[in-house]
Amino acid sequence: MIIDDGLLFRRAAEKDTGTLVALYDGAARWMRTRGIDQWKAGEKDAAHFLARMRDGEVWLAGDSDGRICGAYELWWSDEEAWGVQPPVAGYVHRLMVDRSVAPAGTGRRLLDHAERRIARTRRERARLDCQSTNPHLLEYYRGAGYRVVGEFPHKVGQDGRVYGVILLEKRLDVLRRLDGGSTEV
Hints:
Blueprint: E1 2-4, E2 7-11, H1 17-33, H2 46-55, E3 57-62, E4 68-75, H3 79-82, E5 89-97, H4 106-120, E6 125-131, H5 135-143, E7 147-156, E8 162-171, E9 176-177, E10 183-184
């Protein structure tokens, strides 16, 4: 468990799939009430999160009382949206916050945690995407230091729907020069 400014971060386990599904569905409903057509409640099930745990990392963030207030997926490749890439980036997906319990700034702290995880692998970029039709989320990511590097106009969803995504990336300071020329992550 990693404590980060009052949030407790831990990798998700099989027992957490119900929590992850509830976080996803809650975030999807929150988006819908604000006219954001991005996620649909019921679209991601336990099998989805178990697969992400096998193929990458899924992280949960909780408060000091043990309430889960957010989560994210970290992938080590994303060929569907980014094509075949050299191993220079980590890909953040499904940044989810439970607004009923999350302290202000939880989304940014989830992003910061993901960026540090990526940097520890000596990868120099954090990447993510958001739907082209979600200008609020695009501005949120820009405010977190991400820059638009491209667009993929023909991503296919689980339901067969085709939509466009904006590709964003943030360069990470992977190595810091210390005296004597040694490096530290």
